[in-house]
């Protein structure tokens, strides 16, 4: 896909993976809408890249529709990247009692329902576009996690939500193939994002020693470069790519 001049929506674009992706897409010539629950964070990234900021919840139809409207005002909407996500920890049966059901629902709502909400609304608009010379009309890149395969203790909600993202990738790609729309998912390992920022330096250092090679935490720009690579290669479709330096998570 030629992304120069297209419009792209990046959710969770106010920080971490989303911010790096928004920056990379803008540098490659795309017109980017940065969507984040935090207006100030989205606005800061948008100002930096010459994009448009939209605040909203990815699980709300109206909020996503507004972000897509903003993207379509910039050019043909051909790319949506789902980076919004949360990862609170809780045990199924812990010292404080059973896992709060509301917390489980919240994680699934943001990580899985939010991802599907963007996928369904964006792809419906992409399907109405004229195809590029390659036959492509659009691309949706979702974000899962290696926790979808090796969820750790205390991460049942997160692992379940990310497994759902992996699970919807192939059937969505199969369904949308007739429109020339691809669906891909990235499953990052340990990336140096705000999710890890709250850890003590020694804890981050210990985590950084876990990947086999490179023996460090991943960088958000490495995720962003994979989004660009997926866009450039039309044969990538219906698959989840691990981005983890050969890391396999242990139970704890």
From TrEMBL:
Keywords assigned: Oxidoreductase
What the entry lists under Gene3D superfamilies is as follows: NAD(P)-binding Rossmann-like Domain
Does the keyword section mention Zinc?
no
A Pfam family annotated for this chain is adh_short
List the SUPFAM superfamilies.
NAD(P)-binding Rossmann-fold domains (SSF51735)
Entry-linked InterPro entries:
NAD(P)-bd_dom_sf, Sc_DH/Rdtase_CS, SDR_fam
UniProt family annotation? Belongs to the short-chain dehydrogenases/reductases (SDR) family.
Q: Report what the protein is called.
A: SDR family NAD(P)-dependent oxidoreductase
């Amino acid at each position: 896909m030629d992304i120069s001049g297209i419009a792209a929506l990046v959710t969770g674009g106010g920080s971490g993976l989303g911010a790096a992706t928004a920056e990379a897409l803008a540098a490659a010539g795309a017109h980017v809408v940065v969507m984040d629950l935090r207006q100030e964070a989205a606005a800061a990234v948008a100002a930096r890249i010459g994009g448009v900021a939209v605040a909203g919840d990815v699980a709300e139809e109206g909020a996503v529709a507004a972000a897509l409207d903003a993207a379509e005002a910039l050019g043909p909407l051909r790319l949506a990247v789902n980076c919004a996500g949360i990862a609170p920890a809780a045990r199924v049966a812990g010292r404080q009692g059973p896992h709060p059901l509301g917390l489980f629902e919240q994680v699934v709502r943001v990580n899985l329902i939010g991802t599907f909400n963007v996928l369904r609304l964006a792809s419906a608009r992409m399907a109405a576009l004229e195809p590029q010379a390659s036959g492509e009309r659009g691309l949706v890149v979702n974000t899962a996690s290696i926790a979808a395969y090796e969820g750790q203790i205390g991460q049942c909600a997160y692992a379940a939500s990310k497994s759902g993202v992996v699970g919807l990738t192939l059937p969505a790609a199969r369904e949308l193939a007739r429109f020339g729309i691809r669906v891909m998912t990235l499953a990052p390992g340990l990336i140096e994002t705000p999710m890890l920022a709250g850890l003590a330096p020694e804890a981050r250092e210990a985590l950084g020693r876990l990947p086999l090679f490179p023996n460090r935490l991943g960088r958000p720009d490495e995720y962003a470069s994979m989004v660009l690579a997926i866009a450039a290669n039309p044969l990538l479709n219906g698959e989840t790519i691990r981005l983890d330096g050969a890391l396999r998570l242990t139970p704890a």
